[in-house]
Design goal:
The protein is mainly beta and 88 residues long.
């Protein structure tokens, strides 16, 4: 089964990283869903919640104050100055 490698990074720390089956986020252009095999892309995030569905656990939700999301070869990087992790 294909999976994503997800990295959620704030300016001062790595908030979460691991394998996931999907990522959902709101960009300045609208809602975005990422599954394994997604085309490479770079998008600017809106001030919103990002949802990550880990392969072996409950959904994780983090709040970003903007930033960006990149996808390349099933690696998803979410980078924001400030990230609040409601699962911490």
């Amino acid at each position: 089964m294909s999976q994503l490698t997800v990295e959620v990074v704030a300016a001062d720390r790595v908030v979460w990283e691991g394998p996931a089956s999907s990522v959902s986020a709101r960009t300045l252009d609208g809602e975005l869903g990422v599954l394994p095999g997604h085309e490479p892309m770079l998008s600017v995030l809106a001030d919103s919640d990002v949802r990550v569905q880990p392969v072996d656990g409950a959904e994780r939700t983090v709040h970003v104050d903007g930033g960006f999301l990149s996808v390349d070869h099933d690696v998803v990087r979410i980078v924001s100055e400030t990230i609040s992790d409601s699962n911490a």
